[in-house]
Design goal:
Blueprint lengths: L1 E2 L39 E2 L6 E7 L4 H16 L3 E7 L5 H15 L3 H10 L1 H4 L7 H10 L4 H8 L3 H15 L4 E2 L1 E4 L2 E2 L5 H15 L1
Parallel strand pairs: 3-4
Antiparallel strand pairs: 1-5, 2-4, 3-6, 6-7
Helix pairs in contact: 1-8, 2-3, 2-5, 2-6, 3-5
Length: 208
């Protein structure tokens, strides 16, 4: 576990939950400070889903990569749940690189594909926090990212502002490691895929 954003609209075909996103308001508040869905937060799944999983996430975090397929499985099994990613770059510039590429991909409606590419290739570009930007960019390019447009977008400084807001919320929520999960505001007490799945199922059942 590692220590211490603009709503996604990925209109792609396919059955994977990480390709299901819809544009809409994302300003929900939950009981715990910092555990909120900001207007810039990537939202994966039905925009009006009654159950919201908030993940404080770092694309350079090995534990985040390990949980990634489990989170996708939970979304597949629970159509009434959505995932919200809050960026928490606990691996310094390596994390910022990954977040910047993801945000640029979101602008090009390639968020889902690039997220999968960066997670799959994480050992190559972010092994133990060692940044290899050339490899990260190459995998993103192969996933359909227009690199020139992406670099131009990143140069505007928008991503830095997104990261600053997310880090402030992570501090308010007392997040000390990634990934950290909340389901409708309830924190996951330990990193356990089965427990996360159970918590989501309980919330889905309660909302029906």
């Amino acid at each position: 576990m590692a220590s211490i954003g603009l709503l996604v609209s990925v209109r792609e075909n396919g059955g994977e939950p990480f390709a299901r996103s819809a544009e809409g308001p994302a300003n929900d508040q939950s009981p715990q400070a910092g555990v909120v869905v900001r207007p810039h937060s990537p939202v994966i799944g039905p925009v009006n889903a009654p159950v919201t999983i908030i993940e404080f996430f770092d694309p350079a975090c090995e534990a985040c990569r390990a949980m990634h397929p489990e989170v996708k499985r939970i979304l597949r099994e629970n159509a009434d749940a959505r995932l919200v990613l809050r960026y928490t770059p606990f691996h310094g510039k390596t994390s910022v690189l990954g977040i910047s590429i993801l945000e640029a991909a979101r602008q090009q409606n390639r968020f889902a594909a690039v997220l999968e590419a960066l997670m799959d290739a994480q050992p190559a570009w972010a092994s133990h926090g060692r940044e290899d930007s050339a490899i990260a960019w190459e995998f993103a390019r192969k996933a359909g990212l227009d690199v020139a447009k992406a670099r131009a977008y990143i140069a505007t400084g928008v991503v830095e502002k997104v990261i600053a807001v997310d880090l402030a919320d992570a501090k308010a929520a007392k997040i000390s490691g990634t990934p950290s999960f909340f389901v409708n505001g309830t924190p996951l007490p330990r990193l356990d895929p089965a427990l996360l799945s159970q918590l989501v199922r309980t919330e889905v059942k309660a909302k029906r």
